[in-house]
Amino acid sequence: MALLEGKTPAERNKTIIAIVLGGVALISMSYMLFGGSSAPAKKPTTNSNSQRTTASSPQRPLVSPTPLSPGEDPTDFLRPVVFNNTPPAIPATGRNIFAFYEPPPPPANPPAVVEPTMPPTPTPVPPNMMLASVSPANVFARTGDFALEVTGDKFTPAVRILINEAEIPTRFINAQQLSANVPGSLISSEGPRQIIVRSPDGQLFSNYATLNVQAPPTPNYIFVGLLGKTRYNDTALLKDKGNRELLNVQRGDVLGGRFRVTSISEREVVLTDTNLKIKHQLALTTDSSGGPQGNPNVPNTGFPNPNQRYTPPPQGEEEGEEP
Rounded distance, CA 167 to CA 158, Å? Predict the structure, then answer.
């Protein structure tokens, strides 16, 4: 064929397949379009139900009823129908699958929810007097009574000075100045003190000020022994904590330019601060370090017995030599 000439076998096979498929398609379309037109057309029927009934079931001939004989009851053939309506037993199920939870109806008048309310924070009343400063602002503890001067504004003769809420006798000078004599019991220990000016009825009051109570200076010595005669304790042996130096002191000596020796006994040495007039007691302390090196006349300062004292050798004799 001229259509297949000059083509490879694969191309010829494809062409043949395409021609065959096209023919099959044309035949199928022709059958679908013209295949049913050759059958004779059916006449339409006016009552399809009657024809269907006639074709499915043939008509039976009518039968006349049998006449009743004399004396025969026409209701004898009727029989009562007895129906037992007791349903069969059904095993109980675990739960009713058709039951569902129904919430209870809401109360007619639900109680009102009352939220707790916090009391309002009172607004602090501002002071109606001014406390500007106190003099002195710093004192040493254990220094005894001292005079306190308070300056400010709007003071009246009715107001009083209070230190840590303890009222002290107050002298009114003018509306800007007050004075008071502070007893030493209020400054017996170190720490801050709160000062306020207030009237006895509390209607007049000022802001707070601070009085600083500081610890007083203490001597940097320890009492380690006595040097003296049998009846008199006229010389004490003290050791400096800073350089470990031993000092022989007597009554009236001033140590460090500040602390005066005012009392010497077998149990303690009393030093008085010459500036603050504060007394410091130095109790006897056992010290095993011994006396200064190179001085055989200074005994070992570790005195376990406070009544033990050192007696120097007779004049002209060295300690440790036979007389």
Answer: 13
Query: What are the backbone angles phi and psi of residue 145, rounded to the nearest 5°?
Result: -65, 150
Q: Cis peptide before 88, with omega less than 30 degrees from 0?
A: no
Q: What is the pLDDT of residues 164-222, one digit of tens each?
A: 999 999 999 999 999 999 999 999 999 999 999 999 998 999 999 999 999 999 999 99
- Per-residue pLDDT band for 59 (boundaries 50, 70, 90) equals low
| C-alpha span between 275 and 263 (Å, rounded) | 18
Residue 76 region by backbone torsions, left for phi larger than 0, else alpha for psi between -120 and 50, else beta: alpha
The pair of structure tokens assigned to 223 is 């009492």
Tokens coding 36: 């049913």
Identify whether the C-beta of residue 196 lies closer than 8 Å to the C-beta of residue 205. Answer: yes
Note the pLDDT tens digit of each residue in 151-167: 999 999 999 999 999 99
For 206-244, the DSSP string reads B--EEEEEEPPP---EEEEEEES-SS---EEEEEETTT-
Beta-bridged to residue 150, according to DSSP, are 134, 178
pTM above 0.70, yes or no: no
Paired tokens of 169: 């006798």
